Structure formats: C-alpha cells, structure tokens
Backbone:
C-alpha cells in the first residue's frame, strides 16, 4: 500500500486545467490536434499524448444546473487490471507503488489499454508501445510531488501522506455534510483496491451518492 | 483592490459579481476555498452564465448583462428598508448624515438629476453639479444631521432614490427568479453585523458598460453601508485581469492621469503650475500634499532643467485640449485622418477594441504603425486580413520583437497593490528586447534627432532627465527604480518614503505612491520575501504595498470610533488603552498621533470630508448610481420610462446601436463577451501555444438549449452571429456550444436569450478564428469611456453546411 497518494477533491475543482497542461509540460507530451465539439473538455480521449485531463459534465437536477469538473488519469491501482493483462510483465508496480510501463519489455499488444476500466492507457502507434501517466516517477525519485498536483491552485489536487489525506478528507466530508451538502462523499476505491488516487467528491453527481457506477470516469 | 488576495480568507460572504474569478483569477479560489473551509464562508456568484465560478458557488444569481446597477441598487434598498446597515459605522465613517443642497432633485420619468443640460458637442447631456454639493454650516463646514432624519441628509435621499428598486421590480429587470434574488440580498446583507465581513470582488463585468463607473460606485456604497470597508475580509476588490495592469494604471498609462493618480493638466484651466496646484489641491485630506508630489514628479522628469523660475518645467508638459482622447475617440480621430502614426505597445486593438472590424479599416489611414509584441499581432498585420488588398494600403508597419515577462527583470504590482520584484529567468530569443530597452533606445534616438535637427518643440525631449544607461551604454533598471522611489536632489540619496517629498524642488520622485518601494539599494522592499508570523495574512515583510506598505487601505475603519476592532478575531489596528498608542497587524492608514475619537472623524484620509461617500458629486453622470439600460438593450427602462441608456454617455457614431423596435426584432438576443482560462486577452500569446490550443481550439458561442432548438442549431455546428455593427454583412462564424449553463430569462414579461462568446480569436497565429469584437459597439462610460463590451444585441443563425 502506498504511503504517498494524490487526493482529488472535486468540490474544489474549478476546471482551470493547470494540472492538464503541467502534465504535458513536464512530460513534454505533444499537443493533439483538436476541434471544438460543443464542450470545454478537450482532448476528447486519453491517449499516448494525453495522460491526464479534466472532464466537464453538465447536470440538470430538477431545473438546477450543475457543472462538475474533475481531474482524471491513471488511478495507479493496487489490484491493477492492466498488470494482470500484460503478457510480458512490462507493466509493474514501482518502488513507489505506482503503476509503470517498461517500454523495453512492452510489445505493443494493447491488452492493457483494453483491460483498463478507466480507459486511461494510450497507445503510441509509431513507437509501438503503450503510454500513460507515470505519477511523475522521475519527480518522486527526486523528492518532488507530481507535476499535476504542484500546479493546482485551489487544493482540488493534493499530494501527500496517505493517512493525513484520509483524515483530512473524512473531516471535510463531515463538515460539508454539516453545511448542508448531505450527499458529500469520499471515494477511496476499496472495491477496486485503488490505492494511488483517492476522490473526494461533491456527490450531487448523479443524484445518488454513488461510487464506481456513477464515477465520472465512466461517463464518456 | 482595497484589500488583497490573501485577505479573502477572512470573508464571511463573498460576492463575485461581474467577474468570473475561478476562470480568470484561479488563484483567488485558493483563498476563497480557505474561507469556506475554515469559517463556512458563502460564495455568491452573480453572472449571466453558469460559469466555472458558479460551479463552485453556494448561490448563483443569473442576471441579464448590463443590469448590474439595478441588481446593486436593489441590494442598497434591501439594506436600507430592512435596517440591515451597520449603523454606528455609517453614522461615524460615511457621509450619510451630511446635508445636500435643497435644490437637489431627481426626475423618475427621465432618470435625470438636477442640473442637467444639453452637450451638443458630445451628442449627449451633461450636468452642472452645483446642486449636488453639501450644505455649509455657519462656519463654512459641511453641514450634517447626526440623527440622519433630515429629508436633505444623504441617508434619507438614498432611501427616496432607491425606494422603487423593490425585489419584484429588480427581478423583472434583470430576468432572475425573485426568490433567488432575495436570497442573495439576504445573504450578503448579513455582513452588516458587527464582526462579520463581506467581500465584493469584480472585474470587467462591472466596469465595461456605459454605466461602469456607477456600478463600481454602487459596490462602494454597499460596502460602506454594511461596514465592510477597511477591515479584514471586506473591501471593494477589483481583480485585475492582466499581469501588472495595476502597475500600468499606477504609472498613468491612461491619458487623463499622471503617475500616482494626479490629473493631467488642462490647457483651458491650468495655464501655469500655480494654477494647476491651486485648483487641483483640495483644502483637506491627504491630497493637500499634492504640490509635493507634483513638483517632485516634474523634478524627476526634467532634473536640473526644472527650477523654480521655469515652474519646474511645467510648460513642457503636454496639456489636455479638453477633448476626449480615450480609445474610442482616438480611433474616431484616426478614421477622420487626424492621426499620422500609432505605437501599439503590447496592445492589439484590431482584436480587443470595440467594433474591431472598423478599427482595422481605420488603421489604413495611418502613415506608420509600430507594434511591440511577442508575436505578430492582428493589429500589425491588419493589411493581411482576408478581403484587404495590401496594394491599396500605404501604412508602413514596424514590428519590434519584445521579451516575455520571464526574459526580463522588473517589478509588478498585483491587484492587491503589492509591488513584487520578478527576477529574470532566461535570455530572450533572437533580437527580442525588454520593453525598457526598447523605450530607452527609442528615447535616446529621438533626443539625438531633436538635438541635431531642432524641431517644433524640442524642449520637452532634450531637457528630459533621462540617464538610465550603465557604463556599457545599456539600460540599468535599478536607476529607473531609484527615480520612481524618489531621491534627495542634492545628495542623490534615496528618500525613505513619500513623507520626505517636498514642493520646493529639493526632491525628485517618479511616482509618489511607489515611494519607499526601492528605498534601499542593497535590500529594496519590493524584493523582500519574508512570510509573517502573526497568521493574519498581511505579510508586511513580503514585497511592498502602496501606499506606505499598507495592506488594507482605510484600515482605521476596522475598529470602532473608540479604537476597538469590530472583529477581535482578525484585528487590523487597535488602540491600546494601557500604552495609549495605536497597534496593529497592518501599517495604519491614518495619523497615529491622533486619539481614537479624533482619527475616527476622517478615516477616509484621501477625501476632504474624510468620510466614505454614499453620495458623491465626483462622477459626471450622477451622485447616486441609477439604473440605465445598456446602449444595445432588448427592453425599455422599467424604472425610468423616458430614459434608455446612460444619457451622459457620448454618442460617437450615429445609427450605431439598437434603438428602434424594428432593430430589436432584427437583433433579438443579448450578447456578452468574456475570457476563458485557457487563453489570454486577444490570444496573441496563447494562440501560439500548442498545449493551450489543444484545450480551446476554436472560437465558440454559448447558446441555451431552448434557443438552439428554436433555431435548429446542434451542439458543435457552425453558426453565424451578427449585430447592428455588421449590418447587411454575413456576420462572424463560430462553433455552437449548446448548454444548459445558459437559460432564457423573463425580462419585462418577455423571454430573452443570452448568448456568450470569448473574444480571444483573430486571423493571425497558430490558431485562427473570427474576431468577436467585430460585433460590439463603440460606446463608453462618460467618466472613463471604457467600452461596453459586456452587453449588446445580436442575431444568430445556423450556417449552411
């Protein structure tokens, strides 16, 4: 189990996408050619060039408009489907308990991309291997937090000690409920043994305080 | 800003009105979230659209663009009628008890105050403001009624003026559900209690109207009524939309002011320095020091050539001829062929100006045009636009490549007036040079030309004290900083701050407000980086805030007349009964030699009467903000039947805005323009950045679902938008963003649709698109001439595939 994790607090996310561009900048990922397709969200999908992005969802609850934003990307699952699917052992847990792809071992079979429930693994056709978020392994190795969380202005994306962040989250959800947001919740991914990235959600989205089925990642 | 960014953490209720703070000032949300987390603060978002700010707010109040004065006027009435104002504060620190001349009046039919007369030169009206003045008592002092019951006193005049601004009436005008409206009033008015702080933050959605200055006034009135001025978590907080635009304003980038907010001399009134100083210096308040600041400025300008015998070079200063020379008027002069050349320094009016297509057309009347920018702008390349034939255009264009902010050193003032040094990170590419280098070289060459060849009026240039070169002949920014800070002329030593400035020519200072920010060559205050330990967020040892390192201005008002903080949890300044002296977490913004009672008599030290002006004769278009429609309006004025848009606002062009019902049918939808976080201003920096283009690749127009269904517009399809400014033209094209974040509004019993567009696109750069400002009207506020970008009328149709 990882001792350092990222916490995503969707109730504080303003969709500024600093995380998204910080990821591209640190990892020197090229820009994709996109078009405006009727939503602020862009690029439309994760790919070998887009490892993290903010999703935008509009929601109408009895005439009341809501607009949900959250940063999404690889969850660095403890029980990771991509690792199970990989035939060569290219995908593995690192010494930081993050999920990484060893490009030398990768044969480009694409099974991992198919297996990932979050659809965050991209496939680089020119190089013939899979690519995804590395949790900024190079930064972690040098004592820095990931590029995405370092860029977040509001505290919607926080990197830190697992225990501390879980405590803070529990307290915040309690406070949010006291302040009238009765559906505030905290998704810690036990069902999938996702230990890398936790979500604290403002769960008016959708109406039920949902977990995995209502998780915005799946609404594409 | 009267307060500063970090101070947002102390607010109990935050109202974001006319500003999409999450979108355009993302870092503000750090402190707003902290206030919400730590003290359960509430965020009210008042905006026509359900914006990114609305998405994280507690209450969203949709209002029709251009009706902010109605909304704020309604709040003033709500506060007054329900007696929710901070009475002790209002009585002691505002001009509520002051008596106004008995012949002051307001006509609710025409929406005009007393003193109105025609102004044929501007095709508008103007005011003789004598009936708006204070009554005088037998000693010649401003007369007041401390019981605030006299019908002539400001508080009672306000009650009368805003009596018609009922919640129901306002709901009908702004197109909002009345219960949501009233809830927002109720919530914000709770900050009128002692110990509570309400924060109003705004941006261009308040100012870019033909009544923009009055919108800001209305915010000031509300904050004064509720006792929110001068204390932690309160304030009138203008969020600046551009890095160092605060500094640019402080340094007088606008034509009507000199550095440090001193008025530009006028030919008709200020023939001599003595005339200027005697007429521009009030009898009381801090501005009584103006002669010291103005003479020191002249000494900084003209150095040893500025002596008492030649009025310190006053005659070399350009004087205003009484005409408007703001952006709209300047382009009108260009259209009429009265301008020969233009230097656009980090400015791209071909995209950012109102009625921008006209601007690009007028530019061809210039003989020469200089563009100083990071990339080739639409202004510099106006002749490349589709439909223009370069052979027909004689304008000679010079493009000077500039260094980006990280490629040069210098200081920047943020919205909270903090002047912070920014160190250079890397060299600029190729021939790019810093703005300072460019202006230095330009000046030196001009001076040499004048020295060699003479010229019409060479003195202002050849006598200018301009010695900023280092030994290698390159610009030395520290020399500029020293001059801005101010120095003793004899010794050359830096002044401590503006308290040392004199009006006899013994000191020179480039900007009195900044004086003190660079008073130590080894350790200039603007380079300080020491966080505080008190935990209140003032950080007095971090950078330097003008004036005198004060973090919250008018902070005398954070304490009651006896000197006890209204809110002891976050005191700014307080009177210590034991030691008989003032103490504080901030630099006091008043004379600390005075006792609490004496200092409480004039806590607003910049004003002669020393009180916050609920009623003010300062603005040209009325002493109390009144609801006028925007120039392009879909409805009649529901409060003042014979008024339409601001009667004092200059009519620059005929047949330019929608004024007939036939036109209203032709252009039925309300258009508002704005920015998105992914792009910046005219996009000239960001549209050349692939990562940002990836996120926001095309110009779009946001349309509500009902209107889209009516017009057969699908999400993501191409649409054409047109306005009165593009009459009989095809209009501009954009992608449709059909969204429930916009909703139809019921205005005056009729359904009105609001559509919105960002204005970041143009025809140059990596990512091209139509110019949204081709649609917007060239009308402006009568005080500032800021254009009315935020509200106009348009029509929209699906483009045939």
Residues:
């Amino acid at each position: 189990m990882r001792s350092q994790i990222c916490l995503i607090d969707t109730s504080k996310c303003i969709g500024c996408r600093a995380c998204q561009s910080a990821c591209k900048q640190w990892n020197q990922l090229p820009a994709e050619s996109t078009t405006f397709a009727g939503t602020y969200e862009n690029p439309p999908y994760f790919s070998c060039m887009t490892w993290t992005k903010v999703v935008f969802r509009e929601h109408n609850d009895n005439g009341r408009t809501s607009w949900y934003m959250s940063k999404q990307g690889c969850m660095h699952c403890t029980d990771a489907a991509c690792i199970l699917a990989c035939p060569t052992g290219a995908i593995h847990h690192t010494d930081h308990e993050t999920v990484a792809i060893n490009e030398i071992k990768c044969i480009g079979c694409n099974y991992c991309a198919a297996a990932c429930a979050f659809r965050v693994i991209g496939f680089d056709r020119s190089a013939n291997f899979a690519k995804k978020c590395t949790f900024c392994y190079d930064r972690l190795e040098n004592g820095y937090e990931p590029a995405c969380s370092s860029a977040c202005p509001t505290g919607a994306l926080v990197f830190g000690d697992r225990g501390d962040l879980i405590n803070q989250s529990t307290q915040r959800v309690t406070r949010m409920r006291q302040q009238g947001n009765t559906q505030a919740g905290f998704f810690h991914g036990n069902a999938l043994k996702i230990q890398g990235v936790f979500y604290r959600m403002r769960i008016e989205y959708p109406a039920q305080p949902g977990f995995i089925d209502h998780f915005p990642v799946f609404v594409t | 800003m009267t307060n500063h960014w970090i101070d947002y953490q102390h607010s109990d209720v935050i109202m974001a009105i006319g500003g999409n703070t999450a979108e355009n000032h993302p870092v503000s949300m750090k402190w707003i979230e902290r206030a919400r987390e730590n003290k359960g603060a509430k965020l009210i978002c008042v905006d026509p659209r359900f914006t990114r700010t609305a998405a994280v707010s507690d209450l969203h109040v949709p209002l029709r663009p251009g009706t902010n004065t109605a909304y704020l006027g309604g709040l003033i009435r709500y506060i007054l009628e329900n007696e929710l104002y901070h009475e002790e504060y209002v009585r002691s620190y505002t001009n509520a008890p002051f008596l106004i001349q008995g012949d002051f009046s307001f006509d609710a039919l025409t929406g005009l105050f007393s003193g109105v007369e025609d102004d044929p030169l501007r095709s508008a009206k103007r005011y003789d403001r004598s009936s708006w003045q204070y009554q005088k008592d037998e000693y010649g002092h401003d007369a007041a009624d401390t019981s605030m019951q006299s019908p002539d006193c400001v508080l009672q005049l306000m009650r009368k003026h805003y009596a018609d601004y009922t919640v129901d009436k306002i709901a009908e005008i702004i197109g909002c559900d009345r219960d949501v409206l009233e809830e927002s009033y109720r919530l914000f008015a709770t900050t009128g209690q002692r110990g509570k702080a309400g924060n109003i933050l705004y941006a261009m959605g308040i100012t870019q109207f033909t009544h923009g200055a009055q919108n800001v006034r209305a915010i000031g009135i509300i904050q004064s009524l509720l006792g929110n001025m001068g204390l932690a978590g309160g304030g009138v907080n203008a969020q600046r939309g551009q890095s160092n635009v605060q500094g640019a304003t402080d340094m007088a980038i606008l034509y009507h002011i000199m550095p440090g907010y001193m008025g530009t001399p006028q030919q008709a009134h200020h023939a001599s320095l003595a005339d200027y100083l005697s007429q521009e210096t009030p009898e009381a308040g801090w501005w009584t020091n103006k002669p010291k600041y103005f003479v020191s400025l002249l000494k900084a300008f003209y150095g040893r050539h500025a002596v008492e015998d030649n009025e310190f070079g006053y005659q070399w200063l350009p004087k205003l001829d009484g005409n408007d020379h703001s952006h709209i008027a300047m382009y009108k002069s260009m259209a009429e062929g009265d301008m020969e050349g233009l230097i656009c320094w980090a400015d791209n009016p071909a995209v950012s100006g109102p009625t921008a297509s006209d601007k690009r057309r007028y530019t061809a009347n210039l003989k020469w045009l200089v563009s100083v920018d990071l990339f080739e702008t639409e202004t510099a390349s106006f002749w490349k636009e589709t439909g223009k034939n370069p052979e027909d255009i004689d304008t000679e264009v010079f493009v000077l490549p500039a260094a980006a902010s990280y490629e040069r050193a210098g200081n920047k003032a943020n919205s909270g007036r903090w002047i912070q040094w920014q160190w250079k990170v890397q060299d600029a590419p190729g021939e790019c040079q810093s703005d300072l280098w460019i202006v230095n070289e330009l000046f030196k060459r001009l001076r040499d030309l004048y020295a060699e060849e003479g010229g019409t009026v060479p003195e202002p240039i050849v006598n200018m004290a301009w010695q900023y070169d280092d030994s290698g002949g390159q610009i030395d920014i520290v020399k500029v900083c020293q001059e801005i800070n101010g120095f003793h002329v004899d010794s050359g030593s830096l002044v401590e701050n503006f308290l040392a400035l004199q009006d006899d020519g013994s000191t020179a200072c480039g900007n009195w407000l900044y004086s003190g920010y660079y008073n130590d060559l080894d350790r200039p205050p603007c380079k300080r980086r020491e966080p505080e330990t008190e935990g209140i967020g003032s950080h007095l040892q971090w950078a330097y805030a003008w004036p005198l390192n004060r973090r919250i201005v008018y902070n005398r008002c954070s304490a009651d007349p006896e000197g006890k903080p209204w809110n002891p949890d976050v005191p700014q300044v307080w009177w210590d009964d034991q030691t008989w002296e003032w103490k504080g977490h901030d630099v006091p913004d008043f004379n600390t030699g005075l006792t609490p009672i004496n200092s409480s008599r004039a806590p607003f030290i910049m004003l002669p009467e020393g009180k916050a002006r609920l009623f003010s004769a300062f603005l040209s278009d009325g002493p109390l903000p009144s609801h006028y429609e925007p120039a392009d309006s879909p409805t009649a004025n529901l409060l003042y039947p014979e008024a339409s848009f601001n009667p004092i606002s200059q009519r620059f062009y005929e047949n330019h805005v929608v004024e007939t019902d036939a036109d209203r049918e032709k252009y039925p939808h309300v258009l508002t323009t704005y920015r998105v976080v992914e792009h910046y201003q005219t996009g000239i920096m960001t549209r050349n950045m692939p990562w940002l283009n990836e996120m926001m690749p095309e110009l779009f127009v946001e349309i509500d679902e009902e209107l889209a269904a009516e017009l057969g517009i699908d999400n993501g399809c191409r649409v054409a938008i047109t306005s009165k400014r593009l009459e009989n033209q095809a209009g501009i094209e954009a992608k449709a963003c059909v969204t429930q974040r916009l909703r139809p509004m019921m205005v005056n019993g009729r359904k009105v649709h609001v559509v919105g567009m960002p204005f970041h696109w143009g025809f140059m750069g990596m990512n091209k698109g139509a110019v949204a400002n081709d649609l917007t009207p060239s009308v402006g506020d009568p005080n500032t001439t800021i254009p009315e970008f935020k509200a106009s009328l348009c029509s929209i149709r699906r483009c045939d595939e």
Confidence is low (pLDDT under 50) at residues 191-195, 200-220 of chain A. The interface with chain B takes residues 11-18, 20-21, 24-25, 30-40, 42-43, 58, 60, 65-69, 153-155, 172, 175, 179 of chain A (CB under 8 Å). The first helix of chain A runs from residue 18 to 26.
